[in-house]
Amino acid sequence: MLIESSELLKLYKNNIWLKNTIILDASWYLPNLKRNAHQEFNNAHIPGAIYFNIDEICDPISNLPHTIPTKKQFEYYMQELGIKNNSNIIVYSMDGIGTSPRAWWLFKLYNHKNISILNGGLKAWKDIKGPIINTASKITKSKYVACEINKNIIASYEEIKKIYNSRNHQIIDARSAGRFSGIEEEPRPGLQKGHIPNSINIPFNLLIDNQGYLIKKDKILNLLNKNNFDFKKISVSSCGSGVTACVLAFALEFLGKKEWKVYDGSWSEWGHQDNKLIEQ
Questions:
Q1: 115 and 108 Cβ atoms separated by less than 8 Å
Q2: pLDDT at residue 247 above 90?
Q3: Does residue 236 contact residue 169 with C-beta atoms inside 8 Å?
Q4: Is 195's pLDDT higher than 90?
Q5: Is the pLDDT of residue 236 over 80?
Q6: d(CA 32, CA 49)
Q7: For residues 211 and 168, what is the distance between their CA atoms, to the nearest angstrom?
Q8: Which of 32, 113, 117, 244 is at 20 to 30 A from 91, Cα to Cα?
Q9: What DSSP letter does each residue of 192-240 carry, written as one string?
Q10: 194 pLDDT exceeds 80?
Q11: For 128, phi and psi rounded to 5 degrees?
């Protein structure tokens, strides 16, 4: 699940990854941060890396930001990226773990078997003097065939309406405490403030240390216990638009918990003006 930069550097020096490894930069930023992830990738990336555009590898028909692509859409995007069904995928983000778990989750959603995240992201790679380039990688279109979607790890709006009051489920909001409580403005216009009823708040950034690494397992456990996380229930992670919710999902999988889901629409869908099921 996690690969350290030192391990990746060994693969690079041995030219092992040239055989079957695809490196993806899945950096993404909220619009209000005014950062261009694709341009930053063009300026500096790991040799051979390809940019995984979260805002493009989605369903373009949806009126919500970067919702999951259909099976055919995912298949098309993977073919365009030159990814094969047996490719060993390693995903990273510019500033650390960052948004790479969103790409990890999408691959898991379509049952791709070999997918890892670079712990510490590009920053960790730079820290050990890993080579950086600014030239585009050659991509050979593949014949990728997408599997059926794994419905066990995704939650819909209708499902959340049924389970928010359930004894068998727990919704965890990965947004900041201020957004969860409704004292901070939402970065996207037209959304209400607050949270899904009965949900708990575990901001995703608490799972990442100040160097961009995923915190150790014992610290994850302590964080979850401190915030009334219930390991017996099916976990459903939510956030602003389904990106940072995947950080929480990744942490749960890292701990060995298998019963978890990501609410893809998240607050971009739930927080619409007509929804009355909102707490502050």
A1: yes
A2: yes
A3: yes
A4: yes
A5: yes
A6: 26
A7: 36
A8: 32
A9: --SB-TT-EE--GGGGB-TTSPBPPHHHHHHHHHHTT--TTSEEEEE-S
A10: yes
A11: -100, 20
Distance, CA of 235 to CA of 258 (rounded, Å): 9
Q: What is the pLDDT of residue 32?
A: 82
Q: Are 149 and 156 in contact (CB under 8 A)?
A: no
- For the record, the structure tokens of 200 come out as 């708990």
Quick one: tokens of 152? 């066990």
- For the question of residue 239 being annotated catalytic, the response is yes
The domains found in the chain, sorted by start residue, are: 2-149 (3.40.250.10), 152-270 (3.40.250.10)
Query: Taking the chain, what is the end-to-end CA distance rounded to the nearest angstrom?
Result: 35
Distance of CA 109 to the CA centre of its chain: 12
Catalytic residue among 58, 147, 239, 246: 239
63, 90, 72, 68: which is closest to 148 by C-alpha? 72
Residue 32 is encoded by which pair of tokens? Answer: 């209000």
- The contacts of residue 61 (CB under 8 Å, 6+ apart) are none
Length of the chain: 280
96-152, pLDDT tens digit by residue? Answer: 999 999 999 999 999 999 999 999 999 999 999 999 999 998 999 999 999 999 999
With tokens 């901001």, the residue in question is 203
pLDDT the model gives residue 31: 81
